[in-house]
Amino acid sequence: MRFERRITTAGQSPYASIPFRKAVSEIRNPDGSVVFRLEGIDVPETWSQVACDVLAQKYFRKAGVPAALKKVEETGVPSFLWRSVPDEAALAGLPEGERAGSETSATQVFDRLAGCWTYWGWKGGYFTSEEDASAFHDDLRAMLARQMVAPNSPQWFNTGLHWAYGIDGPAQGHFYVDYKTGALTQSASAYEHPQPHACFIQSVADDLVNEGGIMDLWVREARLFKYGSGTGSNFSRLRGENEKLAGGGKSSGLMSFLKIGDRAAGAIKSGGTTRRAAKMVIVDIDHPDVEAFIDWKVKEEQKVAALVTGSKVVSKHLKAVMKACVNCEAAGDACFDPERNPALKREVRNARKAMVPDAAIKRVIQYARQGYTDIAFPIYDTDWDSEAYLTVAGQNSNNSVSLTDDFLRAVDADADWTLTQRTTGKATKTIKARDLWEKIAEAAWASADPGLHFNTTMNDWHTCPVGGRIRASNPCSEYMFLDDTACNLASANLLALYDRAAKRFDVEGYEHLCRLWTVVLEISVLMAQFPSREIADLSYKYRTLGLGYANIGGLLMTMGLPYDSREGRALAGALTAIMTGVSYATSAEMARELGPFPAYEENADAMLRVIRNHRRAAHGEATGYEFLNTNPVPLDHAGCPQGELVAHARAAWDRALALGEEHGFRNAQATVIAPTGTIGLVMDCDTTGIEPDFALVKFKKLAGGGYFKIINRAVPDALRSLGYREAEIAEIEAYAVGHGSLGQAPAINPGSLRAKGFTDDKIAAVEAGLKSAFDIKFVFNRWTLGEDFLTKTLGVPADKLAEPSFDLLAFLGFSRKDIEAANVHVCGAMTLEGAPHLRPEHYPVFDCANPCGRIGKRYLSVESHIRMMAAAQPFISGAISKTINMPNDATVEDCKNAYRLSWTLALKANALYRDGSKLSQPLNAALISDEADDEEDAVEALLAQPAAAKTVTVTEKIVERIVERVERLRSQEKLPSRRKGYTQKAKIGGHTIFLRTGEYDDGRLGEIFLDMNKEGSALRAFINNFAISVSLGLQYGVPLEEYVDAFTFTRFEPAGFVQGNDAIKNATSVLDYVFRELAISYLGRTDLAHVDLSEIGTAVTGVAPAKPAASDPVPAHNVVSRGLLRGSGDRLTLIHGGPSGATSGVAAPATGQSAPAGGTVLAVRGAVALKTEPSLAGTIEALAEALPFAKPDPAAAGRSVSDRRAEAKMKGYVGEACPECANFTLVRNGTCLKCDTCGSTTGCS
């Protein structure tokens, strides 16, 4: 075959145009302990720290890489493809500890992968000339380095170790087919033939101990898990419970064996590193034990709830029993006799009421009698990697039920359904199909399992039905084919092929990539070894491949297209059609040169029929499909935003069919859409597989540890595509990410904190923690501020500090509204909903799988996920790994509707995940409000009091209510006769308006006047009287916030651009302008400004009329209008006399500003209002310190698990700790989970 260069130049290194950098890879636990560290690694400069960490921790070979190598000459192989072995002579001159080590450069990995593929490709006859092989080799290396594509994890683990380094080991029981002779051969070494396949489907016979049977399956699974692969099996051949055995006994049933396999899988780490074993269990809908299988995980979740609750209850009561024994001062054995120890009798009675077993109670009393003073009784929690979950079964596999159209039609008709014996085929039970359907939906709703396989649709698109029916899939349900076959995967990073400047997807580059990587995957079949004879034989016979893609969600957002849109689905369909069409055409090319796969001839008619059906869908045809029970969703030509993609899709399938009819195909399957968990991280993909994004604000890892918040990389590109200006984009980003400082924050700022007793050094400590904080409440804690300061200075009771729910800011008197406003300013909204400038019609572009941040409400609907899958499925050989996210309030009926829609749109498989369906996952909202909980506790406490105490308590409450009522009935608060204020002139849409304010002595707003020139008398009178009514409201106690909330964003003329106001640049009405201005000036609502106030400063005029005593500073708001200073008055103090003065800022106690002798300086506390010329000394350090990130917060280790779970949920993660690195950064990844910190996955990509 011929291969042209597209991204490299002949005679030049493929890395010549790619800058590299030195990096340190380090992964830490939340407590700061190091999980992994490797220094001095070489990586491409553009790679993120997470991508570097995944490469170094997961994919670098950690041992056995020789320090000196030599080439092994091989006849008929080009010299650049000769394999290498250790240079023993050179190594002998090195100290023993330096002779071998770890891979330390990304190019070592790229070279061993691409070199090994090209080496075996040359030996297999895939290249016309040496130049073709060289072009193939170089373009592959460049694509890997540019993060354009990545193979599945087992390739990174195993491929090229023998070719590049001569690494080998004893055989592990694998088999391969000799590519020259076609002979099935047992492997003689561990790595000469690598194990590059990620996805396996294995059969299991109804036999206990023989080869191919139940116990043999656990051995075969272990062999796969060891090399980093995943496996799925259909267990429906196993007899149901109580079916007769040949020896006269009865079978223990399907579930007993599934529990054994679950335990085996749970004990194994995958790939010899840190990947969890990936496993799929499938059972047919007519199996006699299918009801128990459906309910399996539901019951196991109930066991976890019982363990957690029971452990807490039992521990509480047993400790109380022990305490009653120990604290007793009676003589002899009286302390241990409930009849003679009243306290013990009471605690025994309480324990028995709580259903604590008598034997456990007596055991504690017996311990106490022997002199013990305490007992250790473990308390379990619902963490998914906790002892409670490890104790129960079913946690190490994805479960699916295989449905036929016959069953689904029986559900529609409310007909009966029969469960049949495995050996005789006789009916064991007849039930209503709808009852079984209801059970499936209830289980999915309650425990997120089982998923569904639509078996009829799977087999309608089967290319090789002569070989048998498709019965199973791999763990993530993207690879579906015959039992005892395997698939190796590779996925393209779609966003890497999008030209942002030209706003065009590089379709020619995409086709080049698809062609090259189809060949890579085919060569991988040729060179591979397999875990059993059957898999080696059938994988050679059918040669199935798994080319796919990732980052479709990132691509759509970058292009400004909503995931849930006709255009988004049409684009995804077109790209999928091109990929599979080109892949099948390439397979036909290889068949022309090397022959079709061995089983092609007997399946040729069926395969060509499937290819024709694919082609019909690419041509947009709604009818005319051959032998399909459910027609697919055809490609939407008119909806595709880049029309040329449709033409390329049609051409690709025309060519695939023409070449296939002439030469056949080299591969029975070509494509899948995998979850791309770990490989998605190594490619720096924003989104995985076909998934949308899970969050708009990401926490980017720093090389030295720690994180800082950044907007999703696709957001600015999307905003540019939608026509927003750079200044507007910057404001939208700031709204989402936050300012990382309290300097200009509303309500909670350095000024208000000083009023509460905070010192400058404590404010500086808070500021340092805010730079990477997710919520300000996580910074205002005892670890940041110290217990002495909290108890002695702020007066916090010591016992309150230990309470997980203690909120320091609320204790200090800040309202929930104040805290939320400060939170949004400092930490960002983490959503774009409500962002300045962003038009509501553009919100759908930024919709994610879950609501974003604390205040986000929007998220993608269940139907949008399913319809996106349906747009891609007609162009995939296999299936799509995807989990449909559902909100917590979704119903069982919603689950049934989602599964039914999936069937009617011709999907092959689907799985649902309802938020909170696992006990380990925290709910987004409290079950009952804290206030309601407190009220209930207060009522219970009151009822428990004696009658006299009740009377006192109730009387106190009545008095409190009367006082509260009197306080609320307030009279008008008159303004002083001579008062401060300011006048602001501006033009709105060409109309001039004057705003004048009047203030109380303490700086509060008390009145406003409005005047408009060149307006009619009626409008002027209306405006004037409106201002009077607002003024009266302010004087009678109506908060200014209420007016601001009521009148901002109102729309009427005049409206438009604003001239003459530094902070506000446009307004939707006169009232919108007026109350924006008042909110900015008096409430510190910088979120309503269009320009950062720190950039424009505040204009301060006037001098102090008198010189008070130096020891008696006058508050600034007595001299200068607070509104004029835009809310900065509470951070100003008059400093008199002397040759110099000082100012206190947020981050430093003093700046050493000078004041004129005898003059007055307005010193700023908490924010720089008046800029001076900066000194060059320390500028770089100051800039570095001001960046919006920080080192890991030592306080994080002390935060409760519930706090960290809640924070993770609001960031878009699932709320669980990674079992490898313990960080709460697990995100849904197809039907699995992946960790965004260390790259661990529960899948097989």
Q: Terminal Cα separation, in Å?
A: 29 Å
Number of helices: 41
The CATH architecture name of the domain at 483-692 and 860-920 reads Alpha-Beta Barrel
List segments where confidence is low: pLDDT < 50 over at least 5 consecutive residues: 270-275, 923-934, 960-969, 1098-1114, 1129-1197
Beta strand count: 38
Mean pLDDT: 85
Helix content: 25-40%
CATH topology of the domain at 483-692 and 860-920: Anaerobic Ribonucleotide-triphosphate Reductase Large Chain
| Radius of gyration over C-alpha positions, nearest whole angstrom | 35 Å
| Largest sheet report | 10 strands, mixed
The CATH class of the domain at 483-692 and 860-920, by name, is Alpha Beta
The secondary-structure class comes to alpha+beta
- Categorize the overall geometry: globular
Strand-residue proportion:
5-15%
GO molecular function: cobalamin binding; cobalt ion binding; nucleotide binding; ribonucleoside-diphosphate reductase activity, thioredoxin disulfide as acceptor
Organism: Methylobacterium aquaticum
Protein name: Vitamin B12-dependent ribonucleotide reductase
Domain Ribonucleotide reductase large subunit C-terminal: 198-747, 827-913
Describe it:
This protein is of the alpha+beta class. Among the domains are: 20-171, no CATH class; 296-391, no CATH class; 483-692 and 860-920, Anaerobic Ribonucleotide-triphosphate Reductase Large Chain, CATH 3.20.70.20; 931-963; 983-1088, no CATH class; 1201-1242, no CATH class. Strand 12 (269-270) and strand 13 form a beta hairpin. Helix 16 crosses helix 19 and helix 20 (600-618) packs antiparallel against helix 21 (643-663). The model is unreliable at 270-275, 923-934, 960-969, 1098-1114 and 1129-1197 (pLDDT under 50).
